[in-house]
Design brief:
The protein is α/β, with parallel strands linked by helices. The chain folds into 3 domains: 53 residues, no CATH class; 82 residues, no CATH class; 202 residues, Alpha/beta knot. Helix content is 58%, strand content 7%. The strands form 2 sheets. A 6-stranded parallel beta sheet has the order 3-2-1-5-4-6. α5 packs across α6, α10 crosses α11 and α10 runs parallel beside α15. The longest helix is centred in the N-terminal third of the chain and has 40 residues.
Length: 428
C-alpha cells in the first residue's frame, strides 16, 4: 500500500507540474529554476527535483521575499564574523613577519639575530637574557621560525638552571658564613677556605706526605699517550655521520668523544686514537674546537685527519664495530684496527653504520652482548665512552666478563653464569 501511494503522488506531481499554473507556482517559489508554460521533459525533470510538495507540513514563511531577506541577514552575519577572525589572524602573522623582516633587513646575520632576540623578548617570548656570538651564529643558521623558537627556549631553560645552581651555592655560602659567626674558633679557618675556593686554589693542609701535583700526573699520562702514538694499537673513530645527526645529537657526540679521550689518556696501555673523515670547519671540527679551544686541540695527542680510514690502513686489517652486524667478536684481536662510528642517534637509526661498512666492503663485528648478558629491553647501542672502556678492559684482561661490566645495569639483568647461580641458590 505504501508503494502504491508513493506512485500515485508521483503521477499527481507530474500532472500538476505540466500545467501553466504549476509552472508559475514553481517559478514563484524557486525563481532560479527555468520554467515554461509548455510541457517538456526539462520542465518535468525540474519539477521532480523540488521537494516543496512533500514538506507542506513544515512551517514555512508566508512571504517569499521575507524568507530570502532572513537567510541573507544570517549569511551576512556569519560571513562577517568569519572575516573578522581571519583578518585578526592575518594581522597578527603580518605584524610578526614585518617585525622579522625589519629585523633581518639590511643587516649582518649576527646583528639581525641579535635584534630578533630582542624583539621576541619584548613580545614576551621565552628567550635567554644573555646570548653569546656563537649562539647567535647557530641561531642564524636555522631556517624555520619554529626551530629558532625551540633553540632560544632551550638556551633560556639552560640559563635558568645555571642561575638556580648559582643561587643555591650562594645560599649555602651564606649559611656557612652564619655558622662561622656563631663559632669564633672556626671563623678564621672557614674564611681561609672560602678565600681559597674563590681564587680557585686548593686548601693547604699539613701532611708528612709529599704532594703529587696534577701537572706531574699530566706529564706522566701524556708520555703514555705519546708512546701509544708510536707503538700502540690504533682505534679509529669514523666522523662521517654529521648529516645523520641534529645539533643536539652532535653536541652529545662531541661530549662523549671528550670522555673517550680522557679515559684513553688515563689508561695503563692506551690506544692510538684516529679521528678519520674529520672535515676542516665541519660540524665535528667546530664543536671540538669549541670544547677544547684551539690551543688545547693543537696539543692533543691524537691523529685527526680528513682522510678515510681505508686510505690509511690496509683494508684487510679493518673491522667495523656495529650493533647491527651478524658477526660476533668472540676474541679481541690485537692485530686488527677497530672502527667505531662517532654517532649518537636518539631516534635509533638502525643499519646506518652497517650500510657504511658494507659500502666500503669492510669486515664487521658486534660485541658479544647476547652471549654473556641477559638483555632486558632496548637497543644494543652503547655510548662512545662505554665502548672504549669495554675495549680497553678486553685488551688488558682478555675477559669479556670484566669488559662487559661497563654495560649499564638498566639494560640487562645480569650475566648468564650469575643468573644460573642465583637460580640454584633460590632452588636450594
Amino acid at each position: 500500500m505504501i508503494f502504491l501511494r508513493v506512485r500515485v503522488v508521483g503521477v499527481l506531481r507530474r500532472c500538476c507540474c505540466c500545467s501553466p499554473q504549476a509552472s508559475a507556482l514553481v517559478k514563484l517559489r524557486n525563481p532560479s529554476l527555468p520554467t515554461s508554460t509548455y510541457p517538456s521533459a526539462v520542465t518535468t525533470s525540474r519539477a521532480l527535483s523540488t521537494s516543496w510538495t512533500l514538506r507542506k507540513d513544515a512551517p514555512q514563511p508566508q512571504d517569499v521575499d521575507a524568507r530570502h531577506e532572513l537567510d541573507l541577514d544570517v549569511w551576512k552575519s556569519v560571513m562577517r564574523s568569519q572575516a573578522l577572525q581571519e583578518e585578526k589572524r592575518k594581522d597578527g602573522e603580518d605584524r610578526e613577519e614585518e617585525s622579522t623582516t625589519e629585523v633581518e633587513g639590511e643587516l649582518s646575520p649576527l646583528e639581525s639575530s641579535r635584534r630578533l632576540v630582542e624583539t621576541w623578548r619584548l613580545a614576551g617570548k621565552l628567550v635567554p637574557e644573555n646570548i653569546t656570538d656563537e649562539q647567535l651564529e647557530t641561531l642564524a643558521e636555522l631556517t624555520t621560525k619554529s626551530s629558532k623558537k625551540k633553540f632560544l627556549k632551550y638556551l633560556a631553560i639552560k640559563e635558568g638552571h645555571k642561575k638556580a645552581n648559582k643561587e643555591k651555592k650562594e645560599r649555602k655560602r651564606a649559611e656557612r658564613m652564619a655558622e662561622t659567626k656563631e663559632d669564633p674558633e672556626l671563623a678564621e679557618g672557614e674564611r681561609e677556605e672560602m678565600d681559597g675556593e674563590e681564587e680557585g686554589e686548593p686548601k693547604l693542609k699539613n701532611t708528612y706526605l709529599m704532594q703529587f701535583w696534577s701537572r706531574s700526573m699530566d706529564k706522566l699520562l701524556g708520555w703514555r699517550v705519546a708512546q701509544a702514538m708510536q707503538f700502540g694499537q690504533p682505534l679509529v673513530y669514523d666522523m662521517s655521520y654529521d648529516q645523520h645527526m641534529s645539533r643536539q645529537e652532535m653536541e652529545n657526540t662531541v661530549s662523549q668523544l671528550l670522555e673517550t679521550e680522557g679515559w684513553n689518556r688515563r689508561a695503563v696501555d692506551p690506544f692510538h686514537l684516529h679521528f678519520c673523515n674529520l672535515q676542516p670547519n665541519g660540524a665535528y671540527h667546530r664543536e671540538l674546537l669549541k670544547r677544547y679551544s684551539q690551543e688545547t686541540w693543537e696539543r692533543l695527542l691524537i691523529t685527526a685527519t680528513s682522510q678515510r680510514h681505508i686510505d690509511i690502513f690496509p683494508r684487510e686489517s679493518l673491522v667495523y664495530l656495529t650493533a647491527d652486524s651478524p658477526n660476533v667478536l668472540r676474541t679481541f684481536d690485537y692485530s686488527k684496527v677497530y672502527i667505531v662510528g662517532a654517532l649518537v642517534d636518539r631516534s635509533i637509526q638502525t643499519g646506518v653504520s652497517l650500510a657504511n661498512a658494507k659500502r666500503l666492503k669492510l669486515a664487521t663485528a658486534r660485541l658479544p652482548l647476547d652471549e654473556y648478558l641477559h638483555w632486558d629491553s632496548g637497543a644494543k647501542n652503547l655510548t662512545l665512552d662505554q665502548m672504549i672502556r669495554i675495549l680497553m678492559t678486553a685488551k688488558e684482561t682478555g675477559s669479556w666478563e670484566k669488559a662487559l661490566e661497563f654495560v649499564p645495569k638498566r639494560k640487562h639483568t645480569g650475566f648468564h653464569q650469575q643468573r644460573k647461580k642465583d637460580n640454584c641458590l633460590l632452588w636450594w
